[in-house]
Amino acid sequence: MLPPRQQSRVGGLQTSLSLVSSDPRLSPEEPRSNSDNLHESPTESASSRETWPTGDAIAVKKMENGKAEIDIPEQSVIRRVSSADKISLQDIAREKVDIICEKMHHLPEEFLEELKNGLRVILEGGNGSQHREEFFILQKLVQSRSDLTAKTLIRAHRVQLEILVAINTGIQGFLHPSISLSQTSLIEIFVYKRCRNIACQNQLPADDCTCETCTNNNGFCNLCMCVICSKFDFEVNTCRWIGCDLCSHWTHTDCAIREQLICTGPSVKSGVGPSEMVFRCQACSRTSELLGWVKDVFQHCAPSWDGEALVRELDFVSRIFHGSKDTRGRKLFWKCDDLKGKLNSGKVDAKAACRAILMVFQELEMDSPKSLENAESERLIAPQEACNRIAEVVQEAIRKMEMVADEKMRMFKKARLTLEACDRELADKAREAAELKMDRQKKKSQIEELERIVRLKNAEAEMFQLKANEAKREAERLQRIALAKSDKSEEEYTNNYLKQKLSEAEAEKQYLYEKIKMQESSRVSQSSSGGDPSSMLMYSKIHDLLYNIPPKGDSQSNECHPFRSNP
After folding, report:
1. What distance in Å separates the CA atoms of residue 65 and residue 194, rounded to the nearest whole number?
2. What are the residues facing 289 on neighbouring strands?
3. What is the DSSP string of 177-230?
């Protein structure tokens, strides 16, 4: 038998956070949360339910595979969001990825956290059938869509992708604020290319298994899930899980009992003697003996169990060997029932019960050869039958050797494929490095060209500035020359104008003088004949006006012709 189931990634954590299964084979009426008020029974046990470890104080900062981190969420103040901008879980499950992604980019982080909290409440199923119906409606909407592919989900908002994965798988761990997976991992989980167990995260099918269970059951991982119910938990070092000796697939003990995969059959080792309790694996249809496996589990793990754990494990052993017909199986069944009663009544403590059950296993091991000898003595085997049985044993050995060879060949092929993938990745990285180097050189040459152009433009700007300064100085010189010529021409024009006015005044004066002389001559002639006194008075006024008038040239030059004003 395989050794007891070990926790390969996360150890020392308790399973208190319940998750909902995404197995489509389960009916809507089947309970899907591992709540405290459920009781274990041979037909339905908490060991067949998916759980995620949370402990009272989570101290895990990064999982061993480096794919999930746990941080302490910060509290924040919730801001108001208008009803037109709000989105619901039904919108996320129904609307296109791009539309919801655009809306989420405009919503505050507090509102998105409220959406995740609402889905977590539904997955916890605190409101019973109402929450289960809401979840089944959301899951049906998501799983009926054909547009949710890896190409479309790559454009999804982070919170949108977490909600879609949680609805599709029924696991609220993807919504937990202290768990963060990469977007690629979430997409692979959604499209069933990666294990939905956050603590496992193996690529599917695990170990490239080609069995019917791993091939036909979407999202099934043979490293951490039950072959029958396709659920996982984190119970280790226990009889809750049974492993197949040949294909290494695991099955819940309760599921195996319920499906009648634990039954009586011929001895797996010798094929002779009375029937014993065996386990028939549903994945490969091969049988494995149970007595030796139970003995190994108790020898390796029983010393670390407390009283409650020991009672639980003894109950599992009692249920496994309840239908046993061989002497050793019946003896083990009776001893387990006896120790359970004594532990429950307090007659013995856990250490004493542990020692007692280990002694029983030693006794059964000592009785094994005797029982085989007695069986051989009671039954004489014909030579032909002995040859047939020997042939069967040889064929079984050859078959196991062939299976081992196939396994080795499969591992070799897997290693070779991995090596080829690494070589391709290395070549791609080298090509990308060369492209980056060429781009860098190209950018460098472009930068140098731009610097040269900038220097040229600076030189041109300096040259144009010098020319502009020279043009400005030339314009100022021409302006001074123009001003000087304008002053000179204005002065010449003024002088010519004054000369003309003076000549006109002289001519007028001469005209008046001649006129006065004529008037004087006429007055003399009249005075001789007794002239008029009024004529004499007019003559004197004209004479005074003519000889006493001031010159008008200087006073009228600037008034009549104001060519310019003195500065």
Report:
1. 13
2. 278
3. TT-B--HHHHHHHHTTSB-S-TTT--BSSGGG--SHHHHHSTT--TTTSBTTT-
For residues 195 and 298, what is the distance between their CA atoms, to the nearest angstrom? 30
- Distance in angstroms (rounded) separating the CA atoms of residues 81 and 448: 51
> What is this structure's pTM?
0.52
Q: For residue 552, tell me if it sits in a domain.
A: no
Cα(513)–Cα(422) distance, integer angstroms: 132
Residue 454 included in any domain: no
Q: How many CB atoms lie within 10 A of CB 551?
A: 10
Please report where in the chains the tokens 């000087």 appear, as a residue: 484
Q: Is 241 helix (H, G, I), strand (E, B) or coil?
A: strand
Strand order in the sheet with 287-289: 262-265, 276-280, 287-289
* Number of helices (H), then strands (E), in the chain: 16, 7
Q: Rounded CA gap, 282 and 257, in Å?
A: 12
The answer to whether residue 403 scores a pLDDT higher than 90 is no
Distance CA 329, CA 344 (A): 23
4: in domain: no
Categorise residue 160: left if φ over 0, alpha if ψ from -120 to 50, beta otherwise. alpha
Are 198 and 13 in contact by the 8 Å Cβ rule? The answer is no
Three-state DSSP class for residue 251: strand
Amino acid at position 80, single letter: R
The domain of 102 spans 85-191
Number of domains in the chain: 1
Using the structure block, give the residue that is written with the tokens 């003076």. Answer: 502
Q: Is residue 440 very low, low, confident or very high in pLDDT (cuts 50, 70, 90)? A: very high
What's the confidence (pLDDT) of residue 536? 62
Among candidate residues 286, 277, 355, the one with its CA nearest the CA of residue 316: 277
Residue 129 covered by a domain: yes
